[in-house]
Amino acid sequence: MKKLMNNKYLYSVIAILILILYFAPLYWMFVSGFKPPQDLFEYPPKLIPTNITFEPLQRVFAAGVLRYLRNSFIIAGSSMIFTMIVASFGAYAIARLKARWANWILLFFLVAQMLPPVLMATPLFIIFYNMGLTNTYLAVILANSTLAVPFAVIMLRTIFLQVPKDLEEAAMIDGCTRFQTVIKITFPVAKSGMVVVSVFSFIFAFGDFIYALSMMNQEHMQPATVGLYNFMGSQAIQWNSVMSFASLTALPLIIIFIVLQKRIVQGLSAGAFK
Amino acid sequence: MNFKNWMRKKGYLYVFLAPSIIFMGIFTAYPIIYNFIISLQDVNVMTLARPDKEFVGLENYINIITDSTFLVVFKNSVIFTLGSVFFQFIIGFALAMFLVKNFPLNNFVRGFIVVGWVIPPVVVGTVWKWLLNTDFGLINYFLSQFHLLTNNISWLTNPDMAMIGILIANIWLGIPFNMMLLIGGLTGLPQTVFEAAEIDGANWFQKLFFLTIPMLRQTISATLMLGIIYTFKVFALIWVMTGGGPVNATNVLPTWSYQLSFDFFNFSQGAVVANLMFLIMLVFSIVYINYIAGKED
């Protein structure tokens, strides 16, 4: 018994060490953002910073990081809403359709979800260019949704398959239309799964780089990922400011992750194979 | 049967399905077909807006395949994909084996490592570019502390090292995903088999190679196939770290396609490279989907 106890504590210590090792890059990103230049180029580097400065942060704010983040939220939020509206009804239909061709549609979504974004970058750019949609949020939102919609349909279908039909039939007997039934019964029952899928859609679109990079050349509309890339390239690299920018770009997702951690982890292990 | 009745019984499902089908038709199926058309035309900055683009047949394909860059880029793609998947898998597997054990902090650590997976690849690439910095990067510092090197390594600017540089970053990024899938598989294994083997005196290696790996075969194959599919299309991480350079040392099919379209404005050739990727990905996706479908039956 005593040996087992020791083992358990030893394992916990090793686990914490693994966590520290894995998070070292993120820690370094964060602390580098608060270092004055001379400390940044100090050798050996100080693993725990002694001089903390907010100057890199100020420079990043002056470079418009908040505007870039706002654009990221506009793009990711709109993609998420659009994806959830389109995909939840589509997924519901596929879950309830008994026809064989419904499987072919599912297959199409499965393949679509695995396609490389760069494959769509060239044709979508030309299509949007000819529609006069380059340099609009709409183009980037639609482009991001081409990945999020098939992903969401596949995840949501499995979730809706688990909603008992009896509940829906009871609502129909009470006089609800099909649309009302789905809105008032099915979606609320599947709520926790739908939240996870929304969060995934948001995370994907927030992290998008290639579509915003290829379709937007106007700084005031670009999201934080493109902002960070341009910020790094625009000057002789000041690594403390760059790391500060990177931290601020990652921060919203880290916060979302910590708040919804349990659900995201469950969703990732449950849905990834389907 | 009147319309109202039909709608109520079955028709409503078609109405529900329509938006997603229309959306995917216009913004995924059509672009794939259009991409194929562009690849047979001459599309550059001058002809971009013109409705009547010149048809050039397979000329673009021939130009790409006979381009000396093609072989380099293709080889890089294979090395990057296999190298990433191999190490992500080994490390993810080791972590999964360890974290399925029952001890106080296992769930906490398991959950938090997944943070690496939600961080945008652009941010990950930027951070690793700093960590791998030649003169002031943390990686060179630690390596020299342990006397593993005498001269600082130019991870991302030396053509011989750049591939290793981007591999390190991408392996870091992919560990949580591999770990999560494998933990899912490991928790499903029947414990009684292991207990029986222990009574028979099996050691750790025997249990790993004769029990865990064979029983986990399906999860392992699925993880590796998904790993290949996801790694083959990595763009942002590489673009941010090296831009495909130095001298094409880290140029892979996605970065090359992007370069051709958006740096050289040769949209046709960009489309050709994207189409070649599409074919390769399609084969992998179908193999994967068949495998998963076979497993469920």
Structure explained in plain terms:
The complex is a heterodimer of chains A (274) and B (297). Chain A is mainly alpha-helical and 274 residues long. Chain A is built from 14 helices and no strands. Helices cover 73% and strands 0% of the residues of chain B. Chain B has 14 helices and no strands. Chain B is flat, with a radius of gyration of 24 Å. Chains A and B meet through α1, α4, α5, α6 and α7 of A and α1, α3, α4, α5 and α6 of B.
Give the overall shape of chain B, derived from the CA principal axes: flat
Instruction: Give the assembly state of these chains.
Output: heterodimer
Output the structural class of chain A.
mainly alpha
CATH architecture of chain A: Orthogonal Bundle
- The Cα radius of gyration of chain B reads 24 Å
Task: Tell me roughly what share of residues is in helical segments of chain A.
Answer: over 70%
Largest β-sheet summary of chain B: none
Number of domains of chain A: 1
Helix tally of chain A equals 14
Strand tally of chain A, please? 0
Which segments of chain B are poorly predicted (pLDDT under 50) over 5 or more consecutive residues? none
CATH H-level name of chain A... which superfamily? MetI-like
End-to-end separation of chain A in angstroms reads 42 Å
CATH class annotation of chain A: Mainly Alpha
Instruction: Report the major sheet of chain A.
Output: none
Summarize the structure.
Chain B: Belongs to the binding-protein-dependent transport system permease family. The complex is a heterodimer of chains A (274) and B (297). By secondary structure, chain A is mostly helical.
List descriptors:
heterodimer, A: 274 residues, mainly alpha, MetI-like fold, B: 297 residues, 14 helices, 0% strand, transport (chain B)
Explain the layout of strands and helices.
The complex is a heterodimer of chains A (274) and B (297).
Chain A: H1 2-32, H2 37-40, H3 55-62, H4 65-96, H5 101-114, H6 117-130, H7 137-161, H8 165-173, H9 178-189, H10 191-207, H11 210-215, H12 224-234, H13 239-259, H14 261-271
Helix pairs in contact in A: 1-13, 3-13, 4-7, 4-10, 4-12, 5-7, 7-10, 8-9, 12-13
Chain B: H1 3-39, H2 59-66, H3 68-99, H4 106-113, H5 115-118, H6 121-131, H7 138-145, H8 162-187, H9 191-199, H10 204-215, H11 217-232, H12 236-241, H13 253-263, H14 267-296
Helix pairs in contact in B: 1-14, 2-14, 3-8, 3-11, 6-8, 8-11, 11-14, 13-14
